[in-house]
Amino acid sequence: MGRPAHIERMTQQQLLSVRLCDLDLAIQGSWLEERIEKVRQELAERGLRLNPHFWLSDEWFSPAGVPGVALPFYLAHPKLTRLERSQMLEAEGATADGCMRLLRHELGHAMQHAFQLQRKREWQRLFGKASIPYPIAYRPNPASRRYVHNLDGWYAQSHPEEDFAETFAVWLRPRYNWRKRYRDWPARRKLEYVDRLMGDLQGVPKRVQSRARPYSLPSLKITLGEYYERKRAHYSVGFSNAYDRDLKRLFTECEMCNGKHETAAAFLRRHRREIRGLVAKWTGDYEFTLNQVLNEMIGRCKELKLKAVGPERRLVLDFAILLTVHGMNYLHRGREWHAM
Hints:
Elements: H1 12-15, H2 32-45, E1 53-57, E2 68-72, H3 78-88, H4 96-115, H5 121-127, H6 160-172, H7 178-181, H8 188-200, H9 224-235, H10 244-250, E3 252-253, H11 264-270, H12 272-283, H13 287-304, E4 306-307, H14 312-339
Parallel strand pairs: 1-2
Antiparallel strand pairs: 3-4
Helix pairs in contact: 2-4, 4-6, 6-8, 11-13, 12-13, 12-14, 13-14
């Protein structure tokens, strides 16, 4: 039997030798508690009696047959969140907005499991058969308006169950006028169906009552080091090198400057809102695609260890032009793939 790890006193290297089951973590008392309470309130305001349960595991998921949600352990402690970022380049759900988007998505799965919604004919007609196998990889069409946008990667296009979960997440989001935002999109039919379906389920007790917690943190015997080795192998950590030539022209490679300069990745994160505002008029409804490309470029800047050297305003404007070009190229490629 292992002893609880004293996370605060350990270095990142020491943490990698600790088993997940020995991490002394809990949702209670962490920032996740407030996020969960907020999403429970969103369900209550819609009159839904899902009453989901939550537990810590190794990733985000809602298992088949269980109307509950597992959250990744690294979100329960800031030091583990930093470790996740250092190992995987990002920590999924580590921001307030990102966490809420994921919680609403997983609650879409939990609603499906609680009421076995995939058995309904109209559900199948709009989203597809839930029984089809999940693809190893999928090629999304960034230009498609048949799917809503909630999580990164045009995730609704990966599988019928993900399409429903993403649609539910957009529907559940408070003060989000999806009728206006998706006014001319075929995806609006799915949102209208979810709106009718959830109206029918108001006040209805869930059919599936399981309180199981598959793959809960205390059951995971592997070390953090083993966990990250497997995770990197599965997700093939890294960002596209398609932007390298342009990024190296705009920013400076690490060995060519001193340590006083801000990293290009930090620079872009700091100016993210301004840059998106500058190019928004050129992207129209495709701001979601723009954000995907921006995230890829920021990640690649970090991998290349680029620095932001030069007049700040010029760098912002030049990068805005660069992002517009690559964003539109991405959309054009998406149309070409689906025209074949």
